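We now fix the convention by which a protein and its fold are recorded. The integers have meaning only within a learned vocabulary of local backbone shapes. A record is reproduced here so that you can trace the correspondence yourselves:
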Amino acid sequence: MCESNDMVKVAEQVLQLSSRTGIEPFVEPVKVVSAEAGKVDFKFKVTQKLLNIQGSLHGGVLSLLVDTLTGVTAFTLFSHRGVTLNLNAK
């Protein structure tokens, strides 16, 4: 099992690789706080460019973050790439 610091590095590397797919403006403010197998704590500051016209976090951005950060967390368990097959927002 990886040490916590190693897991943080793994999560940071996977997040960085994910951001190369064109979603970088949305995941750039995301930072890994702590990580262990199956659990990663993230933090980020909601900036103006992430808001909808009502001034709250845009639902599309939120869905993108849930999808991406769930994938980063899953990688700490399975150590291989995967894709989201279904993501419903209701």
